[in-house]
UniProtKB/TrEMBL annotation:
Positions of the Histidine kinase domain: 408-631
Name of protein: histidine kinase
Residues bearing the modification Phosphohistidine: 850
Location of this chain's protein in the cell: Cell inner membrane
Known catalytic reactions: ATP + protein L-histidine = ADP + protein N-phospho-L-histidine
Domain HPt: 811-912
């Protein structure tokens, strides 16, 4: 949070001084960046280190010190500060914006290049640094400055894209440095002075050790460049930052004589910048050296000054084996841990458990042996392996479930299909003179078709649950009526088996509660159906009690108990498994998908309830579940329902275009429509539907029913063509997508194409009638009632997020896009509608109201949709203008609040 606040409120003062003699602006410059870090012990050490830097009076040398300090801060923010949200590019952009003078210093020029250009820029800067250092040390050199020789030969803009130019630049810079080094060697020998070439190299690479290209500078060193002969790592530099945490400053690392010509600082850099934690310790356990990663993990300060012991840091079991190894100096016994790789777990500085691969080796140096420990963090690797193992287990389970599923479905789907096909064949071949037998055959077909649909619904529900996309709704419903209706519905089936089915409902349970009526119905249907299936005599009870949780909340307890065959104790724990079916003695597995109880349990879990089961074999079973519900302020659900008088006579004379490629579906829909007095035109595909529609005069069709998947031209593409036609722009015809495709992606595509409603096959007659009644609705609404809607009816006046989630399978990304389009488009349409009403352009106002109606209805705001429908219907007719204007005034009153509500819902969704 510190980092964010600092970045929001940081000063944007630009240093405009033409020269900087004082080093104070340097510190202000550095503070600007390290104050962006979150306070920590490591940052405090870095601040102290920066504040103690003694900037060289020579401005050019101080510029190199300054870039080194900046790069250390940048490295800390990017790799050690967990709260920092920026990157290297954003930091360097701030540098140029707020500190243009410092950004113009030559040592900072490297920071604005990347890739191969960064390497060439750094090499050029190195050659310039060498020339200036040589001039100061030797008095003068005959080799010209790099700018005179190299600048015209090198174009940094071409380096990254032109490999030939890049290689040419490398060769030219290296040749220049080699020529300069020979000149330096000649002058030093003539004047009998020390040649500090290697020291200048160490200084320069020290300044840029946090630049990615710094490790490539060694390429530009001439092969015979004079280097230090010392085998130790010298910390000698004109510019040295005090590093109290580094143990390498106070200790020397002995290096083999064969590498004496390699600068010892290279060994320091290698040790300090290893990707793994590294520690060197004596036989006693006293630590001699520790690199940065090891110091950070074990929160060590100065290893040399503090008497730290390795045996205090590692797990006891590892320490015991390690002590045995280091105490054995005979080298004859096989080692427990020395020279081997082991996996251990350690607790990090923040208390988190982390896994490491540890390697401990003997250094075999002269005198007393020393030992090295290397610690490689493998936590992510182990986590990845665990995830992979779980995924593999999931895949195996999925494969087994798929096999079981196919086996079950093959039987369960074929059974009702055989009945349907068999009875249909009998009906087709007989003369059906026996009306009673004919009726029984039709009832058998109907029963089997509904059974098949139930199986398909179970599969779809189970698929949604598996994908985590099944949603629960909340609305007012009469819980007592739901239970009573279900009980009455199952009594006939129970009576056929000679079973008593009774219901006991706690009288104190309120009639109206807030929850998901459909899912409660589904749960009880599964449990009561199972009870009847496995009970052959006796009785079945549905017992409902409750417990008050608070003034607004209650917990309702449901129990379905029977005197059936019971469940064996060893199988009771498996009854909720997917595809599991109970076997009766002497019978094969019971009919069904084996998904009922699995779905039931998940539906209860989704409502934060619990399901338990108990059973005694041969005596019966009991299934109990608890659901937390909200009390409603309504006394009756009738308060929120306006009863509309509907007559099929209202539908007579409507004209509907049906696009459907299936002959039987054409036959069914046409027969249904004709029975309602509706004229129907049939199109065999989308292309034919577009042609028929465009040939008719404007407003000829009241509705288009469009199938999604058709030959020649699919439904979605056909809708797009209709919506894009000039004819549709004059008066938009309602289009209903009528398809067996229930997948959310298909629904999204249909909505984008411009549908008004979406029906799934098999087409429900009542659902289709609802759409048709909506088209012809001409009932007047009491405007006073509209203006004073009850608070409990907010589900019809505000965006119904729960319904949207159910419709689009919890695809919040799509819902957010839908709301964003609504917020972007609706204000323009509303303003246009208001202008048309004000200027009395009523026909155009009617069209805009129709367009807005679809937008509100798509979001579940039926109240606004109804008002807009009345505006659309009335305002364009001479006798209905005043009525339309009244509805418009009512719509204006709730428009702003509606738009605000959608904005709030959108913000809430984006925060999730």
């Amino acid at each position: 949070m510190n980092s964010i606040l600092n970045r929001l409120f940081q000063k944007s003062t630009v240093i405009e001084a033409t020269s900087i003699d004082s080093t104070d602006p340097y510190q202000e410059f550095l503070k600007h960046f390290y104050f962006q870090g979150i306070d920590s012990q490591k940052l405090d050490v870095l601040k102290k280190k920066i504040n103690n830097v003694d900037f060289n009076p020579d401005s050019e040398k101080s510029h190199y010190q300054l870039v080194q300090c900046y790069l250390e801060i940048e490295h800390y923010l990017l790799f050690h500060d967990v709260g920092f949200l920026g990157n290297a590019a954003s930091l360097r952009s701030e540098l140029q914006e707020f500190f243009p003078l410092i950004a113009s210093f030559q040592p900072f020029s490297v920071l604005y290049e990347d890739g191969s250009a960064e390497e060439i820029a750094l090499a050029l800067l190195f050659s310039d640094y060498l020339h200036k250092a040589a001039t100061a040390h030797c008095g003068s050199v005959s080799v010209l400055e790099p700018a005179f020789i190299l600048d015209k030969k090198i174009n940094l803009d071409l380096v990254n894209d032109n490999i030939v130019h890049y290689l040419s630049c490398k060769r030219k810079i290296r040749e220049y440095i080699e020529t300069l080094s020979i000149e330096i060697q000649r002058i030093c020998e003539e004047k009998t002075i020390v040649n500090p070439f290697d020291e200048w190299f160490s200084q320069f690479t020290g300044f840029y050790q946090n630049v990615m290209a710094s490790d490539k500078i060694i390429y530009y060193l001439p092969e015979k460049a004079p280097l230090a002969s010392s085998a130790t790592i010298p910390i000698t530099s004109d510019v040295t930052l005090d590093n109290s945490t580094s143990t390498l400053q106070s200790n020397e690392i002995q290096t083999p004589s064969v590498t004496s010509k390699v600068d010892a600082s290279l060994y320091e850099a290698m040790f300090e910048n290893m990707l793994d934690g590294a520690i060197v310790f004596e036989r006693s356990g006293k630590m001699i050296l520790a690199n940065e990663r090891a110091r950070d993990f074990f929160t060590l300060s100065d290893v040399g000054a503090n008497e730290e012991n390795i045996f205090n840091l590692l797990p006891a079991e590892i320490c015991q084996r390690l002590k045995e190894d280091v105490e054995d100096q005979t080298h004859k016994k096989e080692k427990n841990i020395l020279g081997k790789r082991e996996e251990i777990h350690l607790y990090g500085p923040n208390g988190s458990l982390e896994y490491y691969e540890i390697i401990i080796s003997n250094n075999y140096n002269k005198g007393d042996d020393t030992y090295s420990i290397y610690l490689k963090n493998i936590t992510e690797k182990r986590d990845s392996l665990d995830v992979l193992s779980k995924q593999m287990e999931h895949v195996q389970k999925a494969a087994k479930a798929k096999s079981t599923f196919l086996s079950n479905m093959s039987h369960e789907i074929r059974t009702p299909l055989n009945v349907i096909l068999g009875l249909a064949d009998i009906v087709k071949k007989n003369d059906n003179a026996d009306t009673e037998q004919f009726k029984k055959n039709i009832e058998g077909i109907d029963f089997s078709a509904k059974s098949l649909l139930s199986i398909v619904n179970d599969i779809l529900d189970f698929s949604k649950i598996e994908a985590g996309k099944l949603s629960i709704q909340s609305y007012n419903y009469n819980i007592r009526k739901v239970i009573t209706s279900l009980s009455e519905g199952f009594k006939t089936k129970a009576n056929e088996k000679g079973i008593l089915l009774y219901t006991e409902i706690d009288q104190n349970i309120p009639d109206i509660v807030v929850g998901d009526q459909y899912r409660l119905n589904q749960i009880l249907t599964n449990l009561i159906g199972n009870a009847i299936k496995f009970t052959h005599e006796g009785k079945i009870g549905i017992i409902v009690t409750h417990k008050e949780l608070s003034e607004d909340q209650l917990e309702v307890h449901f129990e379905v108990k029977d005197s059936g065959i019971g469940i064996p104790k060893d199988k009771l724990n498996h009854i909720f498994d997917s595809f599991y079916q109970i076997e009766e003695a002497g019978h094969s597995k019971s009919n069904g998908t084996g998904l009922g109880l699995a779905i039931t349990r998940e539906l209860i879990n989704l409502q934060n309830g619990t399901l338990t089961a108990s059973s005694i074999e041969g005596k019966g079973s009991s299934f109990s579940f608890k659901l937390p519900l909200t009390k409603s302020n309504l006394q009756s659900t009738e308060e929120t329902i306006k009863t509309h008088k509907r007559s099929e006579k209202q539908l007579e004379g409507l004209r509907v275009l049906v696009a459907e490629d299936n002959t039987m579906n054409q036959f069914y829909i046409k027969q249904l429509m004709n029975r309602l007095g509706i004229e129907v035109d049939i199109a065999d595909n989308g292309q034919e539907a577009v042609a028929i529609y465009t040939q008719k005069q404007n407003g000829y069709y009241n509705l288009i029913l469009m199938d999604m998947h058709m030959p020649v031209l699919g439904g979605v593409d056909a809708i797009k063509k209709i919506r894009a036609s000039h004819k549709d722009a004059i008066k938009k015809v309602p289009i209903v997508m009528c398809t067996a495709d229930v997948f959310p992606e298909s629904r999204k595509n249909a909505i984008k194409a411009g549908i008004d409603f979406y029906l799934t096959k098999p087409v429900d007659e009542d659902a289709l009638k609802e759409v048709l009644y909506w088209l012809v609705s001409d009932e007047e609404t009491n405007l006073d009632e509209v203006n004073t809607l009850k608070k409990e009816d907010t589900h019809s006046t505000t965006v119904n997020i729960a319904k949207l989630k159910e419709t689009f399978d919890n695809d919040e990304e799509f819902i957010v896009s839908l709301l964003e389009v609504f917020i972007a488009d609706t204000p323009d349409d509303f303003n246009s509608l208001s202008t048309c009403v004000e200027r009395k352009f009523y026909p155009r106002a009617s069209e805009l109201a129709h367009k807005l109606k679809s937008s509100f209805m798509n979001l579940g705001m039926t109240h606004q949709g109804y008002l807009l429908q009345q505006i659309e219907k009335n305002i364009s007719t001479g006798e209905g203008v005043q009525t339309g204007l009244k509805y418009f005034e009512q719509f204006k009153k709730i428009y702003t609040k509606t738009l605000l509500d959608v904005n709030i819902k959108l913000i809430e969704l984006k925060r999730l």
